[in-house]
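pasting for the record
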Amino acid sequence: IGAALGVLLLAPVMSNRHGRRACISAGGIVVVIGCIGCAFLHANNVLVYFFWRVVIGFGVGAMCFAVPIYNSEVSTPAMRGFTGAFYQTSVCIGQLLGSALLALSQEWHLALMWPAIAGGVVAMLVWTVPETPRWVMQKKGFDEGLAILKTLRSNDAHQEAKEMEQKLRE
């Protein structure tokens, strides 16, 4: 339920108004808050615990909405399929790693904080990469979008930027 709410309510608005990075970061912060609630603020009440699980799902949903968009908008056209597949593979590996860490953990409260660590790291590190050129072009114009695209490409990015601008108009 939480992931669906995150995808439907938070992610589209946040990602379109404030950018892909802001949506990813907000999702990570919501995951951290939800994990803290699950691990320590549940008041020994199953319904409160499930509320915090929904909060975690809300953040995960926002991130699962924005990360593939970010990947596709910064990838070269030839690499978009690979980055999409790599994202899906990373999600599966993360679930496997998380399950293994949970199974090996002796303290369940701390084990519930593993997703918070991952979400917190992503929420901070996403600000070290540029915003997507497509979003920048849509919000701030062609020249600013082209400038971002040039930082991501080793060759002339002007033609790709022109194609991006045309698709935005369509």
